[in-house]
């Protein structure tokens, strides 16, 4: 009798470990990285050995719960925290080509979303929605300003651009926030130049931008959103560390999840730095920016 039981346990364990091996591969393929993969898998292995997980579907559910815990352990602030003062200021930062300008345009096009997220400020807003001003703070790449101007024209939004070729990004942003304050805008969305996180002079410019907007409106910027390209895999983590150290990131936008990228490394970023994901980019169209929902993100990875 004892012998038979032992065989059963061994059978369950070996099935469990095979399932676990497959999930481990799935985690690595989805760019979770070795460190977090080992942490998750070892936890599951212990539960299998303790007889707490008895089937493939129980292991899968436990795996999803582990990832959800890592994504939400430091709180679940996926909404924009825009405070009470007008204008709320959102700065968008990140490396070149990640999708900053596109994300900014998408956010500006989501007046309903911003309106809903403004919380207590919302009751003061006019019925027609949120008044959004864009600031073309990417003074490094001329095409970024042209791109924003075209979008602003299309959507009827207003925009502040650099005057003269040598205008500093910090002065464009401070000018925009001043105008936002004087003209009663609800939100000022600030684009910034793309930069490698290892380029210190450009990182210093970001500090100047942050200080400049804070001088105009106390507490600004309310949000500093770091755009992370979902296809960059494990490079996300050093990028996020550096940007966070320099300017203090309040939220992440994970872009390009419409391709083969799963963006699993963002779990390490959230776990290590305690910064929540606020939006995901799932395409190039205006509607392709969605609020981040941890459960949906996890389901997409393990579907
Ligand atoms: P920036 O340099 O960070 O401002 O990057 P851009 O906003 O100019 O975007 C770089 C490229 O990525 C553009 O071709 C965008 O259309 C594209 N892009 C941005 N977000 C997404 C996304 O979620 N999915 C896909 N497929 N492409 C995106």
Automatic annotation (TrEMBL):
State one molecular function term (GO).
Answer: GTPase activity
Concerning Pfam families, the annotation shows: SRP54, SRP54_N
Question: Keywords of this protein's UniProt record, alphabetized?
Answer: GTP-binding, Membrane, Nucleotide-binding, Receptor
InterPro entries given for it?
A: P-loop_NTPase, Signal_recog_particl_SRP54_hlx, SRP/SRP_N, SRP54_GTPase_dom, SRP54_N_sf
Please tell me whether the keyword Isomerase is annotated for this protein.
no
Q: Which topology term describes how it sits in the membrane?
A: Peripheral membrane protein
Where does it localize? Membrane
Q: Name one GO biological process term.
A: SRP-dependent cotranslational protein targeting to membrane
Please provide, in alphabetical order, the Gene Ontology terms of the cellular component aspect for this entry: cytoplasm; membrane
Q: Can you tell me which family this protein belongs to?
A: Belongs to the GTP-binding SRP family.
Q: What is this protein called?
A: Signal recognition particle, SRP54 subunit, GTPase domain
The organism encoding this protein is Dillenia turbinata
